[in-house]
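Chains adopt folds. We examine one example:
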Amino acid sequence: MMVDLQADAGPALVFGGGAVATRKVKGLAEAEFQVMVISPSVSDEIRIAPQTTVIDRCFSPADLTGEAHYALVFACTDDRAVNREIGRLARLANIPVVVADAQEESTFFTPAVLRDGDLSIAVSTGGASPEIARTIRERIVAAIGPGWGQILRLARDERDLRKGQRSDADD
């Protein structure tokens, strides 16, 4: 089952600042999540990502055991032991977690997503191959073409208009 978690569920916490973390932060930013990144070094793309705060330091267990509430956690460091500990603590705190270097330690996977306005199409390989998921997503984009976000916006307006007319008739 795929779930489309809304950004108002809470902020996302990403540990790491390399290529994998950059992809995760970009996806979270596109979905309009508030993102906190903790890493002693991060890519320039992470630093300029919208709604993203960077804390330049290493992981601390207090990041997951303190008062802050996170909707999602991503363990994307280049240290296996640190990623394992992040996953363990997130699971103890009942926070969904992706452990980038250990699929079996993750509690969810991030699909390759096509977003066009209110249209979202997600492709997941269950963590088996993010590259194949991206390739399939790109094929879907090519097959359906652009403009679906605008079509959905018009459909929503029409639906709202019909709802209003029904409500007026009930009065």
Q: What stands out?
A: The mean pLDDT is 91. The first strand starts at residue 12 and ends at 15. The chain has six helices and seven strands.
